[in-house]
Amino acid sequence: MENNDGLRIGVLGGTFDPIHIGHLLCAEEALQQFDLDKVIFMVAGKPALKDFNSIASAQDRYWMCCLATADNPNFEVSTVEIDRVGTTYTIDTLRDLHAQLNDEDELFFIMGADALRDVPLWKDAHLIDDYAHFIVTARPGYDFAEAKALLAKRLPQFNYNLMEIPSLDISSSMIRERFNQGQGSRYLMTEEVEHYATERELYTWQ
Prior knowledge:
The chain has about 210 residues and is of the alpha/beta class. Helix content is about 30%, strand content about 15%.
């Protein structure tokens, strides 16, 4: 896929339960480092490799993403996956998005390094980089060596670019636990998302 003056569109998929500043920073860094025109936040539907029995509803996660990204004209939020019935697969999402592009446009799928080792297990894994370039970003303290070696063995034709971002040791699970313990989440997420999660009592289960 050569760049010939089409749009360069990033896709950042995630559960976003809840979305936090680490997600926003990742998207912004991708915009800057890869000269993207926009980043689409793809709210996860029902991925095959994840347990979705104990997370906030798709509608709540969608609205939190909308609130978090509302002030950035280069960010969009998509319901492509949560609108799809049944198990959702990355290859289907990329095909759906690719079908909406002009011939000159390019997709850039942004994923965390911790998901890299699972790529060979994805549906039609050998076809996914036909539809998008892949950007892999590391989390603090993550060692690429094992994942890279496993990927090279199981799916050697898969191509990706590494992206370095400022180190922020923040996770959605940590924020959910802080909510449950009655601790504040100020500066870990946007004020609008914090208010939404608090009012909806999304992460209080004691």
